[in-house]
Design a protein that fits this description.
The structure is a homodimer. By secondary structure, chain A is α+β, with helices and mostly antiparallel strands. Chain A contains three helices and six strands, in the order ααββαββββ. Chain A has a six-stranded mixed β-sheet. The interface between A and B is medium-sized, with 22 and 22 residues.
Chain lengths: 121, 121
């Protein structure tokens, strides 16, 4: 797949809330995922598809997604950027909030090999 | 200025090749600028407006810009992203090449406080 095709498929799947399906279809086994901040005692960085899917599983299990909007992509060379704007409830605290972030992806040989998220904490 | 106004002004000035003017108008004195890679013996990171303007001065002195296109912005929360696509010649080697990159900016109190560039090397 070209970077345009990868980006379009990611936007399409994520717009439907199918985040894990997007990861399984589009990510390299060697994906590196970088959050804006580290969880307590943890790292900003997750390495490998298994770790990234586990992070997604935790997120999905702990949040109820009321709506998600994806804008973009902007594509330049081997990278593309999108925005995610979500209305979610963190189940453990019944706390509903809006999440807005920019995600940047790097594509090599038709697979996403790096992702980084930008948001304020 | 709101983040929308900051982003619009950056796109407007940079589309005209006025990169240094954009920095002077929109950057915080405490700007942190992160390149995709470090120069030999240097750092990926430049701190402070003076250092960032010096980096820009070096770039301007050493490249001839034939054309520049800016796409975006995509805005999410306190961050926005744009792409830069430039046709430039590196004067020292008379080497003409296309540069494509994604830039992510963070805005606090109407000023850009962080920028990071994504490109392949």
């Amino acid at each position: 797949m070209t970077i345009q095709e990868v980006a379009s498929k990611l936007v399409d799947l994520c717009s439907q809330g199918k985040f894990q399906e997007a990861s399984k279809a589009l990510y390299s086994p060697d994906i590196v995922s970088m959050e804006a901040g580290a969880p307590p005692g943890g790292s900003r960085e997750s390495k490998g598809l298994e770790a990234v899917l586990a992070k997604g599983d935790w997120w999905t299990a702990n949040h109820e997604v009321h709506s998600v909007a994806v804008e973009g992509p902007l594509i330049a060379g081997s990278h593309f950027a999108v925005t995610f704007k979500m209305d979610v409830t963190f189940k453990a605290q019944s706390r509903r909030f809006r999440m807005e972030e920019i995600a940047v992806y790097k594509v090599t040989d038709g697979k996403i090999v790096y992702e980084e998220f930008f948001y304020s904490m």
